[in-house]
Amino acid sequence: MVFNRQGRFDAAIGDFSRAITLEPGRPAFFINRARAHHGKKDYTAAVADLDHAIALNPEDPRALNNRAGALMMLGRHDAAIRDLDRAITLDPDYPVAFNNRGIARAGQGDFTAAIRDYDRALALRSDYAKARENRQQAVRKQRQAPAETLAPEPAMEQVPALLTGAPEPVAAPQPDPEPARTSPPPAAATAATVAQVPTAPVPAPAPRMPVAAAPPPPPPPSPASPPPLMAPPGPSLLDRFLAMENTLRTADAATIVRYQVRLRETGHYAGAADGRLSRALLQAVAACMEAGCTLP
């Protein structure tokens, strides 16, 4: 995702291709790789990736919006409008989809319908500069004769998708070096016999000194303990976001207001605290989670 934002599309494609190899069932990886293809103007490859994403999750309005953007760049405005109609049905508060449908309709020369879509996008997000600019162009083109078509760049969405972290390999502890073998204790010295001298009395034998017992040999080294088992990796950022999205979709208005207030405090949300779930709120939640913010 960082490479996409930096315009390093080849690096982004490489990263998401590796992610798809590891987890081919995640539509977000296909959506984000398609965004990189779109950035390179390889719209055919972008459509192919988005076909995969939609096959995995037909109910994702972001994938439908992004495929419509690539289809428009290929001149397939009718197919783009069908995708955008479906995206808006799934999420009626999706300003990007309204903006892009306005672009597609303007591309067909239907500036009246395009202006209606731009108005809807601006009603959902009053600070949507691209929609406002596209509306102004549509009004100017509508007054010209013959009508000319617009060709603004459709807005592409990126979704949060971090690859589930693979556990780092744990090196087995190295066994301690085998201790040096101790030499067997020297045998106790035997008392020397004293030769008898015929002309002298035999002296009494000297008392024998006690011999210290040899220390016991050290115990053999214990076998190396097996490496500790790693705890399974926690849920990825995408899993946590999807769980949060499900929570918000079933939450009451008071709960949503608490999230809106918190996201306004973190600077990720500029909308009203009206208790309504919107695409802008979900995008703010994703950005906040990616930044490590604490949510209610």
Describe this structure in words.
By secondary structure, the protein is mostly helical. Among the domains are: 2-143, Tetratricopeptide repeat domain (Serine Threonine Protein Phosphatase 5, Tetratricopeptide repeat, Alpha Horseshoe); 237-290. The chain contains twelve helices and no strands. The chain has helices at residues 2-6, 9-22, 27-39, 43-56, 61-73, 77-90, 95-107, 111-124, 129-143, 237-249, 253-266, 279-290. Helix 6 (77-90) runs antiparallel to helix 7 and helix 7 (95-107) packs parallel to helix 9. The radius of gyration is 38 Å and the shape is globular. The two termini are 26 Å apart. Mean pLDDT is 76; it is low at 160-203.
Can you lay out the helices and strands and say which pair or pack?
Blueprint: H1 2-6, H2 9-22, H3 27-39, H4 43-56, H5 61-73, H6 77-90, H7 95-107, H8 111-124, H9 129-143, H10 237-249, H11 253-266, H12 279-290
Helix pairs in contact: 2-3, 3-4, 3-5, 4-5, 5-6, 5-7, 6-7, 7-8, 7-9, 8-9, 10-12, 11-12
